[in-house]
Amino acid sequence: MAKKTKETFKPLSLPLYDELVQLDHSLLNDELGWVTPTYLAENMVHTFRDYQESALRYFHYTMTNKVFEYRRINHALFNMATGSGKTDLMAGLILYLYQEHDYQNFLFIVNTNSVLNKTIDNLTNKQSNKYLYQPVIEIDGERLSIVKVDEFPKNQSKNTIYIKLASVQSVASDIFTQSENSMGAQDYARNKVAILGDEAHHYSASTKSEKEMEQSWEKAINTILNANEDNKLLEFTATIDLENKKVYEKYKDKVLYRYGLDRFIQDRYSKNVKRIQSSNTDEENMLNVVLLSEFRRRYAFELYGTYIKPVIMFKSQKIDASNEANNLFNQLIDKLTPDYILAFLERQAKVMSEDQSETLGFAYNYFLKNKEDLPQIVKEMKREFSPSRIINANDSDRGAGMLEKGQYEALNSLESPNNLYRVVFAVAKLTEGWDVLNLYDIVRISNYKDTKGDKKTTMAEAQLIGRGARYNPFELDGEKSYQRRFEDDSNPSLILETLHYHTINEPQYLKNLVAALDEMNLPTGEDKKNPLLDVKVKSKFKKTDVWKYGKLYYNQSIELSDDYYDGLTKYSLNNQEDIVINWLSSAKEVSYKADMVYEDYTDMHQVPVEIDRRFIEKAMNRLTFFHFDNLKKYMPLLNSRDEFLGEKWLNITNRTIYANIPMKMTSHDLTAQEKLRIVELYLAEVAQKIKKNFNSHRGTNKFIGYPVKDYVTDYKKRIPNYDTSKLFMDKNPQTVQRFVIDDDYFVYESAIINLTEKQLIDRIGERVQELKGHYSEVFLIRMDENMHRESAKSENMKLHEFNPNAKDVHFEGFQPDFILYLQNADFFLQVFIEPKGGKIEEQQWKEDLLMYINEHEAELAFEEEIDGVKIKGLKFYTINDGRNTMKQLARIAIDGEFRGLSI
């Protein structure tokens, strides 16, 4: 009999979960519309995300719905992706069970000390920045206390929640060896207890074994569960092995909620994941990752004015190998010089192939472009990656070994601006329970025997990659987001929203790793430039008069004289008001669902920062943008750096700098280094706006016609590569694919586009016949920037801001992705269309420009006296036409727009 392939297996049936999904959508559900209690939002730091609300709602059904009236669901499993906020959900469940069902006693168990210590901070330590509750918990006017205990008291106080947090090893030991001051089965029988079992995939040893173990963790947990009929066991894990028949039988009717890693990534709550595969030595890989990490930091700072601290983790299989790698890294940083880096870049250039890492290519180009600044860059690298900023986490988690004093706290606060660590060396300690958001690079050290990687090894690495994929909510334009903001194949996303796994180029190992990633449904691909594909204009379209004689219209831009940039206000910068910098922020997520996610500053206050000119000059020296030769490029009238500090420009000495810092701090607590960083953050914001708003050209209301046949041409383009979780990628609206489009209205034979763009093409295709009732010529043109990227023509094919009253001037121009070309005997209509995925706030100015064209049609001028040319723009098109863009098109093109009706 032929062996069954993985694809032939049907999805596993999970009766409880399937029943709850059905119940949640049933009109017969008497609790349809149940909402998350307000006391959770009022008393927790984080507002639940949609999927967390669903998990709580499903649990609520099992506790209250009449469907479960005669069934006792006392054991349930939440199967949720790494990084999806399982501890947040636990914290919410504690309050829910207390308030709605009178539970006061909670036992939290886990198998590792690192997770245990972190959860102690999460649930009981008010002083920790990881604490998940508000400082004061109040429900229905009653103040609530959360008390950490070793034993549940016999006499229990009102308005008190008791939490025992312990390793599963110690809890099992207490159950099997009755000793003084320990909790036995009878202690869990006295009052009802809710057990919260984290990393639950470790608690099935007896299930997997041929015979039941007398003193297994699993048996100890079941003893506690069965001690009181109202005791509950709620287990949480990202990796439950349901493919194991015995594990499946145990959990098939206990899985209460599922939120997989693929959905987590599809919902944009994580970083993207890319692999960089090379045959380099460990030392060469180390230099690569240092260059990439520093490029990330500088890219965020120089382009967006935001400070991120990208963390690198070097992963080894053996402690000896990790320690050797640590020494090798220190030696590398010690011998770094500008010449050493240039020589390395030149060597890499010689061996670079067409499919090299795209992201490394960005980093190489940056350092080559900034050769003159390499002495300063190397100086900063030596500081950023000095031994004092490296954590070696190779202690024994269960033995006597301990991290050095302060290193545990450092590992769990790597996002903090006060935490200067950039590098972590580790073996296995951080595979579970490590909660860090600004991990951007994981490097697999190759100098150990198992280069092929067995399934256990590669699965552990895949799980580590899953943990590292947590999204880093960096600040952009003064706001934070907890979801990815950029298009997934864009340069900013590759740099700021992607985790890179640097790995050895060994075929069998890579095959095993890719299989492990696929088993986890973790979408990844190699970070490389894929082959260029041809995109050709249809030969049939080339025979039309539109291609031969038609024109496409874009507004003309004019060159600005040097005299225009005569002060900082011309760059949309206010140089009169005081300056406010968000420094040591609480980084608390207020609302996961809000369109505009913002920081919670309720525990912050604003203090003046006392600085003198020395701070300003030192900060300017450290930021290469403020070297005078560079300033002169953007401020042609500037004569000196002293003049830049004057009233007409920065005017910083006549203004006060304020910093938002925690309430427990005062301005006197700020160190000189922190004050310098605050000044740097402000200057980075200034640099970003100057670069963004400096342009030698500005748009006008005059539109120029460019021949279609000169600009609608054949071109080449790459498709981003994903080799795992294909099913997920096929459903992701931002996944770029090649589509063949046979319909005559589309002028190219194919299109390399994402699913949102494909949907737009289809939606317009559905309206072609109706449009042909009004127009003899109907064509949709994909205006891909790749067509003329290397050509001087590219600047012609852009729209430029020409609204004199625009709030935030954007001189750079943009090219809408599509043009709908409509022509009849009376007039020609050109409609600009721009599809958008994800958040659109950062690019709202583009839509504003398109709407400005519509609203000021009478002010548009053309290069020659011609009649019957109409230029229009649509609102951004989003997936499933959520903004009714097609209705706007119908109003413009069909419903009489040109017979005097307003859109």
UniProtKB/TrEMBL annotation:
It holds the Pfam family ResIII. GO terms for cellular component: cytosol. It comes from the Bacteria. SUPFAM superfamilies: P-loop containing nucleoside triphosphate hydrolases. This is Restriction endonuclease. The keyword Nuclease applies. The keyword Hydrolase applies. Residues 67-258 form the Helicase ATP-binding domain. One of its GO terms (molecular function) is DNA binding. Keywords: Endonuclease, Hydrolase, Nuclease. It comes from Vagococcus zengguangii.
